[in-house]
Amino acid sequence: MEYSKKDLKMDLDQESLTIYIYREEQEHIPIVYWHIEEVEEDASVAFSMINAVRLFYENPQELLDRINSGYILKD
Fold first, then answer.
1. How many domains, in total, are found in the chain?
2. Contacts of 39 (CB under 8 A, 6+ apart)
3. What is the mean pLDDT of residues 36-46?
4. Domain of 30?
5. Can you name the residues that pair with 16 across neighbouring β-strands?
6. What's the rounded Cα separation, in Å, for the pair 16 and 34?
7. Strands, E, within 1-75: which ranges?
8. How far, in Å, are 13, 16, 25, 42 from residue 47 at the CA level?
9. Which of 6, 11, 37, 53 is most buried when burial is the number of CB atoms within 10 A of its CB?
10. What is the DSSP letter of 34?
């Protein structure tokens, strides 16, 4: 499925990080999600989180490709 690059969103708060595809009037499509407890249990998870945030800004299509989502972003 194809989605616009502007539809890829990120929410970051004190407890979690979520990257998702925003769909108006439909359920959002989660791409990646981490909760702070995962980092507390295994600090190496932080590297995956940082890499996902980097790809979100620098190359969002590669982020989707790396997790084998099958989604395609268009301009």
1. 1
2. 45, 46, 49
3. 94
4. 2-74
5. 35
6. 6
7. 2-4, 8-12, 16-21, 29-35, 72-74
8. 17, 15, 33, 10
9. 53
10. E
